[in-house]
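Attaching the record inline, Q. Sequence:
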Amino acid sequence: MSDNKFSFKQFELHQELCAMKVGTDSVLLGAWAILPEKGRILDIGAGTGILSLMAAQRTLHTSITAIEIDTPASRQAQENVMNSTWNDRIEVINKDFTQVADGITQPFDSIISNPPYFEKSLLSPDAARTTARHTTSLSYDAIFSLARNIIAPHGNLSLVLPAELYKEVNNTAMLYGWGASRLTWVRTTPRKNPKRALCEWRRNHFAPCTQEMLTIHTATGEYSNEYILLTKEFYLHF
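Structure, as predicted:
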């Protein structure tokens, strides 16, 4: 398979114009997030459009808005959407989320994002990769503060982030009235500490957060049954 193309069971992603390529994080989030069967879904930082296309595959009667600040990536996402079965349900917008949020009048039932997270690492000299990987253009504060004004009362916000950032990010979420409702820790093997956290928040949620552990590989190196079960509707090799 070419580095510039990634094929799933029901759609294909070209990614030569995108700084950040298709990765496990987005696939996990796209398969894990709770989505409405009908209603409106927002994808913040769409990149190749992977989360929007996964959401379209998983739902029948939703409309999906994909926001991407980087112009080449936005163009790539638009091409991937237009070449898919669900091009009539996905709108790609080439703007900054902070610009778009102020003009949204109809709330979303679900918001999904694989946000930039290398806050404390050295900035890449490549401008597009820096925008894609760092919170210089989109902070967690911005996500939670703006999303609270455009989420439906029953809606949810789902992110994937490094496990070590979860406590800090959750504290930020609580400042803006969000409560963690679901949390799945992701580790690569049974002996490793969690590397990622799949997180869901809801507005004014006060019930305990349900927590689970997902292991990608078994001790002998095969994909785990739980990982296969979660992603089998997407990956070609499952």
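The chain has one domain: 5-231. DSSP finds eight helices and ten strands in the chain.

More tomorrow.
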